[in-house]
Amino acid sequence: MNKTITDGIVLMPTPFAAGLDVWSSGNGTAGSPTYENASNAAFVPADQDFGGALELLKTQATQWLRYMIRTPIEPGCYLRITARVKAVSGNLPSVRIAGWAGRGNDVAVDGIPETGPSVPLTSYGEVVEVSAIVGPGARGGVDMVWGGAPTYGYFGLDLIGPSGGVVRIDDLVIEDITGAYLRKVIPVVDVVDFGAKGDGVTDDSAAFEAADAASAGREIIVPAGTYYLGQDVTIDTRIRFEGMVTQPRNRRFLLRKNFDLASYIDAFGDEVEAFKKAFQALLSNADHESLDLGGRRIDVFGPIDMAEAANETVFEIRRVIRNGQFNVKSGTGWNLGTVTATAQYNPASNPTRLSNVSNLATIEVGARVEGTGVGREVFVRSRNLSAGTIELSAPLWGAAANQSYTFTRYRYVLDFSGFTKMSKFTIDDVDFQMDGKASGILLPPLGETFQIRDVSMTKPSHRGITSHGRGCQDLMVDRCLFVSDEQPVAAPQRISVGFNVNANDAKIRDSRFQRFGTTMVLNGSGHIIVGNHWFQGDNTPDGPLTAGCVFTQTNPKTIITGNYIDNCHIEMSNQYEPFPDFANQFSFGGLSLTGNIFNALNAADWFTFIVVKPFGTGHFIQGLSVTGNTFRSINGPLNRVERVDDSIAPLDASRHRVIDFSANSFNNILQETINPVTLEFTQGSAAQNWTLDPGPWLPFGAWSRTVPGVAAQGSITDSGGSAVYDMPAATPLEGPANNRVRLRWSKAVKGKVQLTVRCDRPY
């Protein structure tokens, strides 16, 4: 509704005494016939009931009387037309208020009612009052509902029924009665006043836009009903919903003044549909950079296809979803899609392509790929049905030319895989409550700077965050909490993964990850992992523990600093190389582990915190720094903190370079690891050749490749006790494991030396 807006506009028709040239016997438009000098009409100046009156002889089946001056129809305005009539002689007709609706230059608006209720004249001389209300909305008492199309009308009355009767008509009255529907002091605008039907079928888009245009800052209200909006609609003022809105997916509904989830829920009723429409509006308009969920909980019964919701495929402007909760409810929408199919793989032709894929139409984009020679977290990035091919998120290290694969599509609360590219998107302060029924977020296949901050990922069924392409470039995970659904499950039996990265430059900061199967799987390079706590232990005494952080390429160019790494290990591998044997690529290295806390509780003594796992032969370590860390084992010692997993291939210890394993502290670790290591050796009896064993101190079962220094501690003496001042010749790579050092003196001597040994060449 609207306030009376006709102040200053003359509505009242001129009296009949002023002349009959403005009173038409037609529809009132220009050129229609008038009653001036008409044989069946005359002005009576002194009627006893009316004063001046029009006396009219009914000569037609419907005798029209229309005032020829346009009466404006303003949005939200309601007019009442009133006439007093009495029969004088002849046949007794019926009378009704009538009008002609127009716009522009006397263009008729068809399809709307133009007459009010009829009232019969039953006796002569009896004054009968007839009236009708015309207005835009179907409100109580409105006889002629004109909607928002007409801009003016020609009003008067009709005489219907038998002809031949004479009637007298008092001057017509037209008055604004908008105040009868809404007092002026209430600052609201009602969409019904602008022609909205609320029947769920009629397109009410124009009525909503008209109400917004006329609001002048006042609140719009949407009364009870279902309002179909078939077009894009933008509301610039505040709006309040009693009724509901429906709209096609490809049309936008933008609430500029109260752009928040609560308003969209009021509008659309269903929480998920409301979120989709609000997200669509967020991406389609520049007025808001964020969608505030207002702390609301959204119950979801299946994945939300974010690209379908937005009706977009590419978006690279910063946008934020913040402050709310997604609460997963049971539903068939979470059922996994699992397909087994055969395919051919030729890494020399294309290392990320499977060809001649059977059952291809049933394999979904975003599905995880499993099979012989397939590394961790390899996904279907795209598929080409006509070519029969699949593009993978990463190469396969050891797949056969033709073999069977299993494709498993997890279901994600927020699924961005339908976007072609999406960048600069942030999810902030949002709680994902998945209760073991769903996974969290599937990133777009391409994009950069996707940020997850202050987010809680609680009990995902399989995955917290998944990248099936390169939408993880510059991924940021800040101050988040990830809690597994597999906490009572023994560590080796867990299948969940916190998140994975395929591209470069991820920043994982100040987050906590609790008892996943694997916390993170990282491809690419340039990652910064700072200030996090991840732990994967279980309640099994002396049980095997699993990898918490897995690198899938040899040289990740990454720092891991200031983290608490608990009951799991860091694994360096090259499982994404299609030709994993060393050729001319970087080998293992480019990793700095600095200032971290490594902790193990009730672990088997062979467990280690750092593991290098080559997937091909000929690899070595080049550029690895492990400095300033604290290693601790509780309830039982560990043998050492690092090892090589040579189940597939060994490392080539003859080629290690630039390994810094120093300034660490070891608590309840039987064998410390240091490189370069300086040890004190004592030879108790005179011998020309001393064989010294620094091997246990060197990392990864390495060789004693170089001897930077030998220094005597006190006197070196011969068998007679005489001092010997010769320098010995130091020969590394001694012994069956190449990890000992032989000192050869000029004669048999005894004494004590400080020996510095490296397992690498520092150049």
Detailed description of the structure:
GO terms for molecular function: lyase activity. Residues 189-243 form the Rhamnogalacturonase A/B/Epimerase-like pectate lyase domain. InterPro entries: Pectin_lyas_fold (IPR012334), Pectin_lyase_fold/virulence (IPR011050), RHGA/B-epi-like_pectate_lyase (IPR024535). Keywords: Lyase. This is Pectate lyase superfamily protein. The chain has 763 residues and is mainly β. It has six domains: 3-182, Sandwich (Jelly Rolls); 187-289, no CATH class; 290-334 and 411-483, no CATH class; 337-409; 487-494 and 507-667, no CATH class; 677-758, no CATH class. Helices cover 5% and strands 42% of the residues. The chain has five helices and 67 strands. The strands form eleven sheets. It has a 20-stranded parallel β-sheet that branches. Helix 3 (261-268) packs across helix 4 (271-284). The chain is rod-shaped, with a radius of gyration of 43 Å. It starts with 22 loop residues before the first strand and ends in a 5-residue tail after the last strand. Residues 1-6 have low confidence and may be disordered.
